[in-house]
Amino acid sequence: MQPIRNLTRIAAATVGLLALTPGASAEDVLKLAIAQRGAWDSAAPQLGQLAGIFKKHGIVLNLVYAEDGGEAELPVISGSADVGLSIGLVAVLRAYVRGASVRIIGASTTGSANYWYVPTTSPIKTIKDLNGRTIAYPTSGEASRYDVFDLMKQYRVKAKPVPTGGVSATFDAVMSGQIEVGWATPPFGIDAIEQEQIRIVVRANDVPNIRDKTVRVMIANTNTLQKRKDVLARFMQAYRETLGWMYSDPTAIKRYAEFSGVSESLARRLRDEFFTKNLLSPDQIVGLKAVVKDAVALSYIRAPLAKNQITELIQIPASQSIGASFRFFSPQSP
Question: Which of 26, 56, 200, 290 has its CA 20 to 30 A from that of 11?
Fold first, then answer.
């Protein structure tokens, strides 16, 4: 028994020494489910981890990528992931009213980087030229599939919306002449723009009803929020710092280009022209009333959420370096 007692004492002493050694404590691990690998607007966790920003806040990220927001939402609901990024807001509203264990901890995208385009040889030059033309819209996606109707309402044009599937199928339909006006989500199509195959007719953010609403959000599993609130607060602080770095340090462009497999010039154009910094701000859910109204109209939810439900659902860690707390969003937010 004596050797066992000695080993026990040695193990206890070792633990004590590790506790006193700076930097020896284990970092907190968060598992993230992220939609659309390689997209600029969902790249902050990857880039921030490469830059050591999350490590500085004592966090290691386990990143799992999904094809879309729906696939990224499910692991968070089930508890197999702690946080989900770039999840459609109306989908989160639907999940919440159905009793899913999710809470919103930040915005992912407010407004949209999407655009409508035509071949460079097209006679369509202005928005008014869309009258009577066929215009593509996606058959999936919680919000972007309806953007075309906001576009037509805003500019009072009577185009002919046609469902075309994803961006690749839409591009093929446009270039073959089956559809006159296509839609795309960057980075798709930017190389075609630079090669003068297509040109942009109108951007989604030119439409106020699109620009002034949060479309995608960050969510956390309720159990994670209850038990690891401090870790999520540090995660959000690191996320904010990563965004600041992405828009100020040239190294971020290089890292993103390597990660996404695009050229640095295309990466820079993607950031500066399509994904301006305010579009990715995590600190406010914008146009919540309008989003809730859309969710009811589209049968995602049966009725608007009550004030106490909004307070429970939206819990964004305050921006501060030490002792970050959680604040609650008012249903009166614009």
Answer: 56
